[in-house]
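retry 2 of 3: previous attempt timed out while embedding nicotinamide-adenine-dinucleotide. Reduced batch size to 1 and resubmitted. Inputs unchanged:
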Amino acid sequence: MLNIAVIGLGWWGRIIVDLARGSDKLRVVRVADVNPQAQAFAAERGVPFSSSLDEILSDPAVQAVVLCTPHTLHTGQIVAAARAGKHVFCEKPLSMTRRDVLRAVAAVQEAGVTLAVGHEKRFEPPIIELMRLLKSGALGTPLQVEANFSQDKFLTLDKDNWRLSGAEAPAGPMTATGIHLLDLSIGVFGEADTVFTSVKQLGSALTNGDTLAALVTFKRGGHALITAILATPFAGRFAVYGSKGWAEVRDKTHPEAPEGWTLTTCFSGGRAQSVDMPPAPAVLHNLEAFADAALGRAPYPVPREQMIANVSALEAIFRSAASGIVEKVEGDGR
Ligand SMILES: NC(=O)c1ccc[n+]([C@@H]2O[C@H](COP(=O)([O-])OP(=O)(O)OC[C@H]3O[C@@H](n4cnc5c(N)ncnc54)[C@H](O)[C@@H]3O)[C@@H](O)[C@H]2O)c1
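retry 2 succeeded.
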């Protein structure tokens, strides 16, 4: 069992507390939030509450923290937790800039702790199958990704909610949902090379934009066409087109309450075939993979280079959304 403290008890932190409480790999020993109203949730779950991260980090009973806080706090909290010798699971995005993600990764490397990120899509069974097909060569050379992750959950948020601020979500839907698709695209193609992004406010009062389209090119070749919309009902789709076949995953519901997926594949000379796949708790599987890594049982399946590549591309997407032109993704030159 890994003793964890969940930091940030908003929408996602509460989901994570309840998932972890049902796991035999994780034990929630403390929770923290700066908002005293979150104390009632902690009391209901019978978990000690704290209003400060420092207090959590000085508790030797806490082996790891799970950060479910606003985006701009992540880097500082990862660095502080690593320096205190705690393993870190951080919700997406790990950081908002390449400089910051390099700082976060350096801190965990120096401390010798595990770093994991809340990209649960990688743990969804149809995505695991799609990646297996890709790796086996069954799809041939990957040519293009087309992906969409949309939802209308933010339409009722107060205007001053952090998720709608230019600092926390500079490219509107990108940090909310598009980032998951960017992560998967990097899983397919590796490091990104250039990005062109357009964000518009078309269907809501979300002033930092509700409709995003991004074209990402990759150093090894290939394109990803990513769309994310915050003013339309839920949609989730990830498709990879290759030289010998293609595979498409369609989500039935939002990852907060998975109801399964449809996986469609088509190979050269054949016809498209669809299978329905039953629900699976991908968010929990991600947390348990983190626990396994922190306890030295298995490496965490998302490589750190891909965590860095994701945030590097994210930062270029922010720049492109602001400049309106193609932006180069910073990298190590390889
Ligand atoms: N993986 C996913 O699919 C998924 C889904 C939703 C949200 N998220 C991520 O989870 C994170 C939180 O999002 P949310 O929707 O739960 O937001 P939220 O606003 O509902 O919750 C954030 C919580 O953090 C608390 N907080 C703020 N500053 C803090 C600090 N310094 N220390 C401790 N607590 C602090 C707030 O009081 C609030 O309760 C974000 O990174 C978001 O992108 C991930």
